[in-house]
């Protein structure tokens, strides 16, 4: 085992920072080598060693799978484990030792710009899908980094926003998926989020990193920062954040060396964190399993398969599937140049890309020249990279106006119009469509997958992993996504996603778990028993239609009455079942009785209420097929809440006044002036010199976008445009400190502070 004692104190401090943007430091005389960290929730995004920033122009060619929101809509754990294994093999092929994935933050609002990179609004589904992905990747000897820990719910103000949540909601909802993945899959690393949690930067929160992650969950790996995500390095070190990325921040190294000589607690923390990093290096470089040669063709086929199984048929008025001889007219911006992945730091440079146009041509399908000449109109549309990108949240849920105008014209012809939708986020669905096939962002083989589903070669089997609202104003946190407040108040407490909308079904366009098929399924003979600390349900599922297909069996539990407010029901187990036409299969689902517990804020522990629970077998969160009551032995505990809180949250609520009674005094909005090294660049517009600086920065960024836009017709040009636009989106919310921390030493921290000081302005009265 590598031992940190072979290093000097100065070398240990250096080990706790990256060598550059993507690599750790090496000490080859001591046998300690550098390891590579790369993005990759939807495929490997390894930048070249010489790359200084987040650009992907020089990224290696890898398989581009569908985005994580699509993966979760497959509800297929075995399939997602295969995807993780394939990505892990490509990491080994190219020399990446740690994959910066998966993203596990829950979807709180449909307007979050990074929702395509997160799995679900439900912690159980997110935790189980992530566990499968992690197991697949780490089976190849490549480590993962669960991110972004924790409560990273929006892109606006993402570097310094403060997520304010009550203790119980954190334990039951926001941290639950992380807990499952940590305990069951044992990830090598966890990445601390940019944001603050209840007033403390996540990377500096001992409550999160030491108390919960390490002590309560038993995590024994490395905690790393997000890129440029540490505000106070000594505080982060003492809180348990081992590795600062990207690195080459000389002032931070000098500070730790100086403090380690004077402060024994800092010296011990340096030793502890250095040992953790060395253990990570050893795990990633020694005694690795033989994974063989990468079969990129097989991975491409897998990408197509997961795209097919993740697509969700949202609605269908008998028009799909199309016959092989169907007379179709095809239109829309993504027919010829399909949008297949999200925009931001994790874009993959794919080995190949197809399109729906190519897929139809391959099948010998000649599209009609006009809609007055077709039987069915296919429209391939959705969100562009300018409407949906890491770095900023969306302003609304509508499709682009030019696409809506095109759809209105096509609908006026009176022919059935099928919308093939490419989007990583929830959108408003226009009325009058004959069918809607949600492909999400389906990866590089999404064109083939789209055609296979439209023409019935594959049967849609995806189910939504988030509630689709009628419009964004129906969200319980809609007002916050219009606000520039530094505080995101999670006033809904435990009522997240369908847990909230159970009480307001009129707001829902498509419920959590929804998805149609080209066949039908029937449920029967539900049997439930409690034994050996588990609830076990057996149910028969029959494919009653004429096509082979797959059903997602969802088990929810209606909670027993108890002393605290609780959601009406919660997902506890699920299974994807593949059935031939006419086939019946007995399906078993189980979960631990302890999973029915709630977090008692007085005891700071889990309490399992004694009582009658209703086991619900459902097609989605609003449609129950079978139900059976069971008694679970537990305990009773005194209510830790005031009567005011109990009454306020007896039904799902998101009122700040009620939350203040639950949480305590809410934080006041901080002063935005004078400017400091932590101030976002959007605040620089509040001072004269700050406006000048921001205009210069914005001019350069806009110029990069304009230059890249002229070459967007090629694959590489499109990737460069996405990258330029991502940086443009992200920069208003960045600060001098985050830029300096992410610059790999090109912008010294002292210079960043000097710029902020010169631009600072005065506090306004």
Determine the N-to-C terminus distance.
60 Å
The backbone outline, from C-alpha atoms, is globular
What fraction of the residues are assigned to beta strands by DSSP? Answer: 15-25%
Poorly predicted ranges = 50-54
**Strand-pairing-aware structural class:** alpha/beta
- Average pLDDT, to the nearest integer? 95
**Radius of gyration, whole Å:** 26 Å
**Number of E-type strands:** 27
Number of helices: 21
Helix content: 25-40%
What does the largest sheet look like?
5 strands, parallel
- Major sheet strand order: 1-3-4-6-9
Report on this model:
- The protein has 765 residues and is of the alpha/beta class.
- It is built from 21 helices and 27 strands.
- A 5-stranded parallel sheet has the order 1-3-4-6-9. Strands 10-15-14-13-11 form a 5-stranded mixed sheet, with helices on one face. The protein has a 4-stranded mixed sheet with strand order 8-7-5-17, with no helix packed on it.
- β24 and β25 form a beta hairpin.
- It is globular, with a radius of gyration of 26 Å.
